[in-house]
Amino acid sequence: MSGSLTERLKTQFGDAITIPEKPTVPETVYVASDSISKVSSFCKSNEAMLLGALSCLSGVDYKDRIEVVYHLLSYKLKHELVLKVRLDRDN
Questions:
Q1: What is the pTM of this model?
Q2: 30-59 per-position pLDDT tens digit
Q3: Average model confidence (pLDDT) across the chain
Q4: Which of 29, 26, 25, 5 lies closest to 17 in space, CA to CA?
Q5: 3-state secondary structure the chain
Q6: In this structure, how many other beta carbons lie within 10 angstroms of the beta carbon of residue 49?
Q7: Nearest CA among 91, 86, 83 for reference residue 10
Q8: How far, in Å, CA of 77 to CA of 65, rounded?
Q9: Residue 23: which residues within 8 A CB-CB, separation 6 or more?
């Protein structure tokens, strides 16, 4: 399968994935909160991704929202991906 990691996720999960307008290094996507489990499992098991290591899990507190940030690594394929989940502050 060709294409970037973010394009692979967009193809697989459609509207649950939002790709930022400006490219980032490492590649970053926003994931709908109700899809993070499916997306992260796919990232770990998909042979083109094999993102089996969680190198950093953090939360970012903004005035209007909270973001959970997952930094995933593939030691075998030598790439990384950042998944971000935006959460409503009231939840």
A1: 0.92
A2: 999 999 999 999 999 999 999 999 999 999
A3: 93
A4: 29
A5: CCCCHHHHHHHHHHHHEECCCCCCCCEEEEECHHHHHHHHHHHHHCCCCCCCEEEEEEEEECCCEEEEEEEEEECCCCEEEEEEEEEECCC
A6: 20
A7: 83
A8: 33
A9: none
pLDDT at 2: 46
- CA 34 to each of CA 27, 37, 47, 85: distance values in angstroms, whole numbers, following the listed order: 21, 8, 24, 9
And the tokens for 46?
């998909």
Specify whether the CB–CB gap between 74 and 52 falls below 8 A: yes
Q: Which token pair is 25? A: 């290094």
Residues 11, 65 contacting (CB under 8 angstroms): no
